Structures are given as C-alpha cells and as structure tokens.
Amino acid sequence: MSVKKAEQIGVIIVAAGLSQRFGKVDKVLALLAGKPVLVHVLEPFIHFPGIDRIILPLNRHNLLPAKKLLAEYGWDRRIITCLGGKRRQDSVYAGFKKLGKCDWVIIQDGARPLVTTDLIERGMKAANETGAAIPAVPAKDTIKLADKDGIARWTLPRESLYNCQTPQVFRYEVLASAFEYIAQDVTDEAQLVELTGGRVKLFPGAYDNIKITAPADLAIAEALLRSRGD
Q: Is the pTM here over 0.90, yes or no?
C-alpha cells in the first residue's frame, strides 16, 4: 500500500449521467458478462485496502434501481448514494460533500467497468508526488484543431497528447481548494486543479480501460474481459 495506514481514502463513483447515447437502458445498469456495469466498477474499490467510504452520485432515474442492486450484493451499508447534478462536476461535488474529511479522494467514472486494483494502486503512488494524479495513455490518432466551420487549421503534435481516464486521485485539501475557487465548466476535476495552479501527475493508464458510451461498447468490454481471463 502506498499511503500510510492511518490515512483514510474516500471514493466518489460518478453514475449520474443520463445515458442519452445509450438508449432506453441506463448504461451503468446494463449487463456486461452477466453482471451490471456498475458492479464491475465497484468491485475493485470494495476490495482495495484502505478505502473506508464510497459515495455513489446517481440520477433520479437510476437511484432506486442502484440502491436495490447494492442491497443484493450486500454493499448498501458501505456505499452511500446521493443525487448528482446537471454537470459531471456538480455530481462529483455532491459526492464530495457527502464524503466528509479524509486524506485522499479517488474519483471514478461509473461507466469504466475495466478498472483494476493495480490501476488504483498506481494512482495512489503517483499522487504522492504532487497531490493529484490521473491515468493517461498516449494518443494513437492524429488530432486536428478545427475552426467553427469544420476546417482543419492545425495538426497537434501527437507526442504531447494523451487520452485521460479514471480513477483520478487527489489529496483532499487539493480538491477542496479547487472546488472553492473554480466555478466554470470543466471536463474533469484534474482541470479544476490545473486552474488553481496545481500540478497534476500523469501515470500510465490502460488502453483497455474503456468508457461505456454506446451499446456496441459492451461487446468490446466483454471481449476485453475475456482476454484478461476475467
């Protein structure tokens, strides 16, 4: 374990999105290899040493089904649910307020079911350097900067570009400060920290740590699970 035994780790697993690109089924409740996506996400955190509290922000549609699911797995007393907000950052903040004071905060997408305990461990180690760390993989595709008319204006240097993932790890005070001073729209909490002048360490993510956004992603995720032997 890369933190002191006395240090407390809290987790916010964000599952409050409306799954608008997924169809009628909420993507975090969709079945993946016989289990809901959300169960795959939760299991590594349930079993990770040192994590003593998990907050699960949900939307008004999946709140009750998710509560029922937690009860079925016997996790309802360990995991606290709450309603998220309109934006991802609003949902994270709702979970942050429920979390209470701790030493470390891990933020995880509720639609990334291939997260592993090894990835969590790497994040904890990396965050010790700067107080904030996120998993990332080098971009494989050429990325263009375009104008409002869809005309390519610049090819960005691929060697400097990374695709970022979760779990993202922060010192509690670092994240609390970012929430206090920044109100503008951001894509993730790492951007909040960057805007307050914080240093965010990139650590090696995994190309198979995909996010479920469309039904076809479930087939990809299942194939990846089989390749792992999971």
A: yes
